[in-house]
Amino acid sequence: MFLISRCFRLSRCLLGFRRGVSEFTPSGHRTLVAIDFDKTIVEQDSYLAVSELLPTRQRKELQDLIPKCGWLSFISRVLQALHGEHKVNSASVGLRVRSLRAVPGMLRVVRRLARNQEVDLCIVSDSNSFFIGEWLQAYSIECLFAGGVFTNPACVQRSGEVLVLPYQEQTDCNLCPSNLCKGSVLEELSCSGRYERVIYVGDSCNDLCAMKRLQEKDVACIRRGFELHEKMAAHGQELACSVHTWRDGHELEELLMPKIVA
């Protein structure tokens, strides 16, 4: 799994930070805070934001393919069209991602969590390493995610086009797309023996898969007013962990800090 972190351009910094925190807290006594990216750290879906660089008609035609082809195929076609037809290079794509607004208060809560020597932060996202890397660099917080960044790997080709590849190829999980099962990522992290407790923060239905892997001692934080929150009446009984809701980073900070220090 950590192969993806090595594909991430900031891996040297991330790995260095991971070595540093391990000196303070023994394995098995740490807390992992796993956070989704789109609509959890940033307000907008990063794939839709980048697609806005296309002409309106072309963008809508590609968006119509999402239910049939999936998000990874969608962004691949968007990036191909941007580079091949409109001569939009990776730098322009990166600038669009860097312009995404953070969820109010989220930068503060991430920085505060990262200061706790008993906490590892990680990102589990169906976005990609190029988009996430650009955004984290823009706010100089790339070194805060000592637990890793688990997402679809991406690279800039010599031509200047951004290429996004699947994190995995899976057929076992119906809640997640074939390219990334968040539940399998979280299960591997949970079973590593490194963490005493896991806190998962997300907003969408593929986050439900990860939350279903949480145990009674763990915590799921679901963003109110978004996809997963609207479906919790039907799925809440499937979770063994504690479940809390949040609206923005300020509310999330008030929710998490007593649990982190408890």
Automatic annotation (TrEMBL):
Gene3D superfamilies: HAD superfamily/HAD-like. PANTHER family: LP01149P, PHOSPHATASE, ORPHAN 1, 2. Keywords: Hydrolase, Magnesium, Metal-binding. Belongs to the HAD-like hydrolase superfamily. PHOSPHO family. Mg(2+) binds at residues 36, 38, 203. Pfam families: Put_Phosphatase. Its cofactor is Mg(2+). The active site is at residues 36, 38. This is Uncharacterized protein. InterPro entries: HAD-like_sf, HAD_hydro_PyrdxlP_Pase-like, HAD_sf, Pase_PHOSPHO-typ. GO terms for molecular function: metal ion binding; phosphatase activity.
